[in-house]
């Protein structure tokens, strides 16, 4: 596993965290979006410009602020429920995908389970669900996996290098043994030839 591959899943996690943060802060974003929509739609319909457009915008902001103040409690309740739902469904979707496509990420040990459960727990606590808990917990799992696999790869490369060096040393020893055996055979053959040559008889005086 490498970080470029992990970025795709972490991007999805970040999107889920942003959606959960939006719903957690719905009491703020709801009126703000309502004011922006009111101002844009009214000014576009009436084709207003300048001071009139500014006045309409101010009126929309005031109306949205009043509505947000009156509906703050229901908006907070609705936002908390939606944030919890998004957090749970996002957690299930991400970790189901990881279990199917990258089950090695869960081979860290008990720490992986604690990291997963802590991410789920924090995403279900009101207001804390605005934090990027899913992204952080999944990033910690990826970091542990990448660190573990890099260490395993380094150990394998060291063993492979040592095995190659040992094979090379064995091949050199075998070659030396073959050459020594060849030289011994040549020396024995030369000695045998010298024994077969008869000694020259002395000539008569």
Structure overview:
This protein has 205 residues and is an all-alpha fold. The chain contains six helices and no strands. α2 (26-46) runs antiparallel to α3 (50-70). It is rod-shaped, with a radius of gyration of 40 Å. The termini are far apart.
Primary descriptors:
single chain, 205 residues
Shape: rod-shaped
Structural class: mainly alpha
**Order of helix and strand elements from N to C terminus:** HHHHHH
Quaternary organization:
single chain
The percent range for strand residues is under 5%
Largest beta-sheet characterization: none
Q: Distance between termini?
A: 98 Å
Can you tell me the residue ranges where pLDDT is under 50 for at least 5 consecutive residues? none
Overall strand count:
0
Q: C-alpha Rg, in Å?
A: 40 Å
Helix content: over 70%
How much is the average pLDDT?
79
Please report the number of helical segments. Answer: 6
Question: What's the helix and strand layout?
Answer:
Elements: H1 3-24, H2 26-46, H3 50-70, H4 72-101, H5 110-124, H6 133-196
Summarize it:
With 205 residues, the chain is mostly helical.
């Amino acid at each position: 596993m490498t970080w470029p591959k992990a970025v795709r899943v972490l991007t999805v996690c970040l999107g889920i965290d942003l959606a959960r943060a939006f719903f957690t802060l719905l009491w703020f974003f709801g009126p703000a979006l309502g004011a922006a929509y009111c101002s844009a739609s009214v000014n576009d319909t009436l084709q207003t410009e300048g001071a009139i457009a500014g006045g309409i915008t101010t009126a929309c902001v005031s109306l949205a602020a009043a509505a947000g103040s009156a509906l703050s409690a229901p908006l907070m309740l609705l936002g908390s429920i939606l944030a919890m739902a998004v957090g749970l469904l996002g957690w299930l979707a991400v970790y189901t995908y990881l279990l199917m496509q990258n089950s090695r990420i869960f081979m860290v040990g008990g720490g992986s389970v604690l990291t997963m459960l802590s991410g789920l727990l924090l995403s279900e606590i009101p207001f804390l669900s605005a934090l990027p808990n899913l992204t952080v917990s999944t990033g910690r799992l990826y970091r542990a996996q990448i660190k573990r696999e890099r260490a395993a790869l380094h150990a394998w490369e060291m063993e492979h290098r040592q095995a190659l060096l040992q094979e090379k040393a064995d091949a050199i020893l075998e070659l030396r043994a073959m050459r020594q055996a060849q030289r011994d055979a040549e020396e024995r053959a030369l000695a045998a030839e010298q024994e077969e040559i008869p000694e020259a008889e002395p000539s008569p005086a």
